[in-house]
Design brief:
six-stranded antiparallel sheet; Rossmann fold; single chain
């Protein structure tokens, strides 16, 4: 999603801005731009890769202040004219978020000549208009909350005041950072770590004024705030591909280490047994991790668990009370729908976050947080964070050492599944099937494969296919069938036979104890059995997705249309 990077300080600004934008690239973007001050405010922006923008700019330009942006299109297609920064009147601005009432605002800003299709340009006009009336940008920013519906993180420069950068946030991420070389505003903490580990968390409606010497933060009533300076103590050196070709495969191979770290550093987990009911809320893979959690909590604690997609949960009757626990799962801790759900329920019941990014918005909003220790995850398709989420959910109910599990994962990682991937990569459709927990893994396998390889893939409960979808099975349709649950393996095998009889090419994933020699599959992957089974089964599933995407020459770490941190609704 959109990334903001602003700098003012002692060093030349352009190399720092471009470097900062590069560190936000992993979030997903389709265009980029910067504005910087010389004797005037200059803007450069370009569609596509950041290198296109770099080619336009002289990095050695004498400028010490600037605002930068990577855009992930929401309102208006990816194009140079829709890229940020925008300039209207005296305001030059970058924005992350969605201005929901921009059409209404547009009607009262008719004097402006709009150059883009974006809501962000309307926001620029609005701020300019308010500024022309009172000439006090802090007061203008303080008013936005009452006028704008939606979410925003903003960095801006005013023509009358070229030594300062101003910022504000509401429901979109923005952090402030301090260093010996100057001050920064950025969309996330990793983006500033090259220059400093000192950062300040901004709350909604905090207003920032910063120049090369000082930072002032105001609340919406214009009181000056004294905010805590935090120190990031994580390991930054790991944010490189090292010996690997892609971040995704590096992150797959990091799983034994980060799982063990997550295990060691989370020995005192909340007691789930005191709740009557548990809801688990997340999006995408986080939702899939929640489904695995449901299986284990229901099986071992006998508590009813509902797993909900955040974008649905936020608009429905939630049936919660003070005996309900709602668990929010998020790698980034910034997913807008999940964050909105926390805000919706947090005063009515206990909330627990399973979050990867320390001090992220969701981590700060929930009553209790436990951190997955996956480290920085760069590939858009989550792997190691998903596994750590599952581990924490399972650890809340299984009290068992994971040393054996780790050595089994290391063993599995020795196979690369390239040969099986060869059978899949030139297909356009594929099915993942399984029952119960294997269906939950099938959902994740299908998502992983489709998001990075662009093969159309669907996950089905194995017994459900014959109620309609089996009509799509024809000669050589690939069906990946997962059967690791001993109580259901025979049922799943019957379903596999149904697709096999219709010509499917079956890749069968099972455990050593359930392994059967037969003719109902074409390829077989056998995994060692374990109490923490999903953490083993997921390894070939992730590696198959990776190798298929690689064989199809896809942009594995940054699949098209996707963003790592989904900060808009
Ligand atoms: C898929 C994937 C997404 C995320 C989802 C939630 O590989 O990464 O489906 O799981 O966007 O993101 P977080 O966990 O940051 O809330």
């Amino acid at each position: 999603m959109c990334g903001i990077y602003c700098y003012v300080g002692k060093k030349k600004a352009i190399p720092i801005l471009l470097d900062g934008l590069a560190s936000l690239e992993y979030r997903g973007y389709d265009s980029a731009g910067i504005a910087y001050v010389t004797d005037k405010i200059n803007i450069n922006k370009e569609k596509g890769h950041l290198s296109n923008l770099k080619n336009l700019i002289d990095a050695q330009t004498d400028t010490y202040i600037g605002i930068g942006h990577t855009r992930w299109a929401t309102h208006g297609k990816p194009s140079k004219k829709n890229a940020h920064p925008f300039k209207q009147g005296k305001i030059t601005l970058v924005h992350n978020g969605i201005i929901e009432n921009y059409q209404e605002l547009k009607k009262i800003l008719t004097e402006y000549n709009l150059k883009s299709e974006t809501d962000s340009e309307i926001l620029t006009c609005l701020i300019d208009k308010l500024y022309s009336e009172c000439h006090d940008i802090i007061k203008v920013l303080a008013k936005l909350n009452k006028i704008i519906k939606g979410s925003y993180a903003i960095g801006l420069i005013v023509k009358d005041d070229k030594n300062n950068i101003y910022g504000i946030k509401k429901n979109s991420p923005l952090i402030l950072a301090q260093s010996d070389i100057g001050n920064f505003l950025a969309s996330d903490i990793p983006a500033i770590l090259k220059y400093t580990n000192k950062y300040i968390l901004l709350d909604d409606n905090d207003i920032v004024k910063m120049n090369k010497d000082e930072i002032t933060i105001y609340d919406s009533k214009l009181n000056i705030l004294d905010k805590k300076i935090n120190t990031f103590d994580g390991d930054v050196s790991k944010i490189s591909k090292g010996k690997y070709e892609h971040f995704m495969v590096k992150e797959i191979f990091e799983q034994p280490d980060v799982l063990y770290k997550t295990y060691l550093e989370n020995q005192n987990l909340p007691d789930l047994k005191k709740y009557n009911k548990i809801h688990i809320v997340g999006c995408g893979s986080a939702y899939h991790a929640g489904l695995i959690g449901k299986y284990y909590i229901e099986k071992y604690c006998n508590i009813e668990v509902n797993v909900e997609i955040a974008s649905e949960y936020r608009y429905k009757n939630n049936f919660i009370d003070k005996n309900t626990l709602v668990i929010f799962i998020s790698q980034s801790g910034e997913t807008a729908d999940t964050l909105a759900c926390v805000k919706k329920v947090k005063d009515k019941c206990d909330t627990l976050g399973i979050i990867n990014v320390i001090d992220s918005s969701i981590a700060r909003e929930v009553k209790n947080v436990i951190y997955t220790k996956a480290g920085c995850e760069i590939a858009v398709a989550t792997t190691k964070a998903y596994s750590c989420q599952i581990l924490l959910l399972m650890m809340m109910v299984l009290k068992k050492d994971i040393t054996n599990l780790i050595s089994k994962i290391n063993h599995l990682l020795k196979n690369n599944y390239e040969q099986i991937s060869q059978k899949i990569y030139n297909k356009e459709h594929l099915f993942y099937i399984g029952r119960d927990i294997d269906y939950y893994l099938a959902l994740e396998g299908s998502l992983k494969l489709k998001e990075i390889s662009y093969i159309h893939s669907e996950a089905y409960p194995a017994g459900e296919l014959k109620h309609g979808t089996i009509s799509l099975i024809e000669k050589n349709t690939v069906v990946i069938a997962i059967a690791t649950d001993k109580d259901l393996v025979d049922k799943t095998i019957s379903n596999i036979k149904e697709v096999k009889a219709r010509g499917a090419y079956v890749i069968y994933i099972t455990t050593n104890s359930l392994n059967q020699e037969s003719d109902f599959y074409d390829e077989k992957i056998v995994i060692e059995e374990d109490l923490y089974q999903p953490l083993l089964t997921i390894i070939p599933i992730q590696l198959i997705a990776y190798h298929v995407a690689k064989l199809r020459k896809c942009d594995i770490d940054k699949p098209k249309n996707l963003a790592k941190s989904v900060t808009v609704e």
